[in-house]
Design brief:
By secondary structure, the protein is mainly β. It has no helices and 16 strands.
């Protein structure tokens, strides 16, 4: 048992050191449960819809994680996503988002850290367009990898927050790391997420959906 001092108050915790095993007990734990992996093959989009093809996207978990690995497009375009509240019939949920990026050219010609939220294609203000995750080059060795978290999508009380980070190799010869966040401005349950390119197909790569146990 430990007592922590903060602002002249005692905070009681239930952390304990087990001298036999050399471990700390009492730490809240959780684990990721793989729900579904989709593999792109000249795919116009990759969609995760609750109740379809063994996908779970409901109140079973309070947080969901999408992991995209080595996505390679047919054209140099933006990877995008949107949510559905009607099991995939429409992907047009109002979204507000912001993002920034750090980039560095392979040639060392330049590097910077900058906000991209003022770009109408990237920072959104309560509109129903697909949100931009990042730009990907279509070269044979160009791809993107990262993750997107969606929180409590089954709530019918609150908006639905998301955060996303990823690395993207551009056709212009630079790597950018993107940091995106925002929310879907709806109190309806979200039961579908769709990923696609702004133009062309996703030629290769995978997206995996996980649920976080608490």
């Amino acid at each position: 048992m430990a007592l922590l001092k903060h602002d002249s108050r005692s905070i009681r915790t239930d952390l304990n050191w087990d001298f036999t095993s050399g471990t700390v007990t009492g730490i809240p734990t959780g684990s990721l449960v793989l729900i579904k992996t989709l593999t792109a093959s000249s795919s116009s989009s990759l969609s995760f819809v609750n109740g379809s093809n063994d996908v779970v996207l409901d109140s079973t978990y309070k947080a969901y994680k999408f992991v995209f690995k080595n996505l390679n497009p047919s054209a140099d375009e933006r990877l995008q996503f949107q949510a559905s509240t009607d099991t995939g019939s429409n992907y047009n949920t109002s979204m507000t988002s912001t993002n920034f990026r750090a980039y560095h050219f392979e040639s060392d010609a330049g590097a910077s850290l900058q906000s991209r939220s003022s770009d109408s294609e990237e920072g959104q203000s309560n509109d129903t367009d697909y949100g931009t995750i990042g730009y990907i080059g279509s070269g044979a060795d160009e791809c993107a990898s990262g993750e997107l978290w969606l929180y409590n999508p089954a709530s019918t009380t609150y908006v639905k927050h998301f955060i996303c980070t990823g690395d993207f190799l551009s056709s212009s010869g630079f790597l950018e790391t993107r940091f995106n966040s925002g929310y879907f401005n709806t109190t309806s349950a979200i039961d579908g997420i769709d990923f696609k390119m702004s133009s062309g197909n996703i030629d290769a790569g995978t997206i995996s959906l996980y649920g976080l146990t608490t």
